Amino acid sequence: MTTTAVTESGAALALDGVSRVYGGGAPALDGIDLVVPRGRLVAVMGRSGSGKSTLLRCAAGLERPTAGRVRIGGTDLASLKATALTRLRRDRIGFVFQSLNLVSALNVRENVTLPLLLAGAREGRALDALALAGLDAVGLADRAEDRPESLSGGQRQRVAIARALVNEPEVVFADEPTAALDPVTASGVLALLRRAVDEQGRTVVLVTHDPVAATWADEAVFLEHGRIAGRLDRPDEERVRAALGVRTETGRQPAVAR
User: What is the mean pLDDT of the chain?
Assistant: First the structure.
């Protein structure tokens, strides 16, 4: 089943004719139509400058498109004022970035509970239990009281995933979450995102340049010059590389089987 086979009413995310222009230059996005069903992992791919990061920012409500509309569930983001849009991002969206954005002044448990505290939850045992359950799911319950700087890069990314999932978001946006990780650690991070989809029914939009990372997705969407240039259901590394025009690297470590 491709995203085009799903009606917008049943989607976690829908972009309808979305364009984004900066200044007087060529559009970074040019009439994007994309429907992401609930409970799917979709990889957004393309060369540098293809528009994939702009797509993520517009889809997540971090930027407003120049034209077109974006909907999270049934909510049209264009209908929301700034305060309501901030609330939607806080309550209904999870973010995992390459830069992590963990707060060094807080320990690991506190970093995970931060979205809930910002939403008005009170500190206490119930909140701590949620954080520990999330950390247990990513294999880091024993590091709950440690500071982020004491963790490895892969461990910090797993904390970021626990934080992104703690408020049970409708959509998780992951922007190059494995770019700075070695292949084995990257596979572990991608497995966590895959498990969130398969076991928790989450929807994940993964922006990546890595053909191996795309093999964890249900569908890969390819951008070129701000437009959708192609799609692949159940992508494998060879077909993704062919779509990107990238040769297979000699001696490359294969993707870890899942």
Answer: 89
pLDDT, tens digit, 9 for 90 and up, residues 158-191:
999 999 999 899 999 999 999 888 999 999 999 9
| Domains defined for the chain, CATH in brackets | 39-50+82-244 (3.40.50.300)
Half-sphere exposure in the Cβ direction for 77 (13 Å, CA): 30
What pTM did the predictor assign? Answer: 0.88
Backbone angles phi, psi at 64, to 5 degrees: -95, 135
CB-CB neighbours of 44 under 10 Å: 28
Measured from the Cβ of residue 165, the count of other Cβ atoms closer than 10 Å reads 23
Contact 207, 179 (CB under 8 A): no
Question: Among residues 187, 191, 160, 185, which one has the least CA distance to residue 175?
Answer: 160
